[in-house]
Amino acid sequence: MNDLSRDTAYTTEPAEDHSLAPRRNPVLRAFRHRSLLAGTVICAILILLVAAAPLLTSADPNKQSPMTIFQPPSVDYPMGTDAFGRDLLARVLYGGRVSMLSSAAVVMIGAFFGTLMGLVAGYFGGRPGFVIMRVVDLLLAFPGILLALAITAILGPGLVNGIIAISIILIPVYARLVEGATTEVRALPFVDAAVTLGAGPWRIIATHIVPNVMPSIIVMTTTWLGIALLWITALGFIGLGVQPPNAEWGAILNDGQQFITLAWWMTVFPGLFLSLFVVGVNLIGDGLRDELDPKVAN
Amino acid sequence: MRDMDDTSTTLVQVNGLKVHFAGERSLFRDTPPLRAVDGVDLKIQAGETLGLVGESGCGKSTLGRALMRLEEPVSGSIWFDDKNLSDMNGTELRKMRRDMQMIFQDPLSSLDPRMKVRRIIGEGLAIAGVSRAERDAQVEELIVKVGLRTEHLNRYPHEFSGGQRQRIGIARALATRPRFIVADEPVSALDVSIQSQIINLMKDLQREFGLTYLFIAHDLGVVEYISDRVGVMYLGRIVELADADDLYADPRMPYTQALLSAVPGGAEEGRERIILQGDVPSPRNPPSGCAFRTRCWRAEERCSAERPQLREVKPRHWAACHFAD
């Protein structure tokens, strides 16, 4: 019976000692990706500029000055002035705060509710999951920007309503992604193990599912942050977002478009900031996808 | 453990258990349900190791998962320690689960890649509401018990070898102080050289903690080594059940004979090599009568007309075959 020899006592199994292997700092390693590094640098510079607006200019972004309208860029007005004589540097920097914060708010709201719906649908499945996902399908079937326009038309123009409208477009996008990832993780044996240990569904979702779907959510968020920013500025541009006289990149571009032959600086500077930030965010997204989602990277 | 008589206490009892997986239902076709477990009666005695063998797809894993209530049976009942598990739900069931644990086949995917070993092993204790300090103390004790070291606690599962990962899985299962453990092919994913170490570890832990095992495997050699009794499954049913030595020495069911003849070294012990013809029939559409008759060299008309019941063909030896005597 004792044909399996006992002399290989289990305690003698050589423990692979990984502590000897050099362990690189994951943050440093991630920056080997040039796109991630470039995107982070671009975004960091823009965020710093916008955050440090009061230090960079003493001008009030909304203060009109009839004596100094349409001033080209100069030492006094580094980005020139607009049709009301407002300092464009101040408007671009303070307006950038609005654009960046509202796009961040959009992805946070969209990610939160979308993730919640995706987790519930993916983990519990069944009838509630079916209903949630069919609603998601319905919302996804609309062209996003059209839906946003329709929602702002119902809610009325304004920054908060614009944020709500674009968030609603993001919710089904997140829900679809998270539902798929959750279904995948839920089928793994460590979830079964947690069930046999007596964990309830919400505990499993919080401790096992969320940490394992988080990389996909992060990658998705960097991708959609850029799109959300474009949509926020688009709403501002057509006058459904931030209301005058407040500055926001889309609104500034709108102010500038009718004078584009007369005062190019009104379009070029906010446009440059907007494009740079979107490019930066997308570069980060590309890099993170490679880092966090090996399936896509290969 | 080996010399158990019928007076020993039954820890787990399964009555008429059926687990079916629903088939596809659509306008164009209705696929019949997959009868993974199709009427199993089983008693597991406290302190014993019951081995469960069979080809892949025979329902042995589903049976183990159903005992853990990871699969919902369509009928039948599971009794643990005179409590009916099949009726339990919610909090009651979650409390009950601490008494029964599972060791999984794939040691990597059964450990959450984003958790450190300390948290993995302590998970059951955390769920039970054990304080942080007490948890740490118990986890440190457990990791040594399974042959690893306390410094391993701060690492992630991917930093370990297959055998070490399985030790972590065993430590996690032990943390709730279970009395019954379902080991679902615990060594089939491991190198042969590591297998015996894990098996010996499981035997030592059984002695120390007074565990009862349901040991599921397709490797008959491993099962013979660890089991007190062995059950053979075919197409969702148990077709033979006996003490390990008796089953290996005197298999009564042709299917068991064929399985044993395939074990390396079996021919030298005077067994003729039996090569089974054909594939396992689909569990969606099992044959009438004896499920094995389509591949059996002794099959007669009676076998397709009448399903042989599992009966005691000699003391402590049950077989489901018309010709088992």
UniProtKB/TrEMBL annotation, chain A:
PROSITE patterns associated with the record: ABC_TM1 (PS50928)
Subcellular location: Cell membrane
Domain ABC transmembrane type-1: residue ranges: 100-285
InterPro entries on file: BP-dependent_transpt_permease, MetI-like, MetI-like_sf, OppC_N
SUPFAM superfamilies: MetI-like (SSF161098)
Record-annotated membrane-spanning stretches: 36-57, 101-125, 158-175, 217-242, 262-285
One of the record's GO cellular component terms: plasma membrane
GO process terms (BP): transmembrane transport
Protein name: ABC transporter permease subunit
Species: Pseudooceanicola pacificus
Organism phylogeny: Bacteria, Pseudomonadati, Pseudomonadota, Alphaproteobacteria, Rhodobacterales
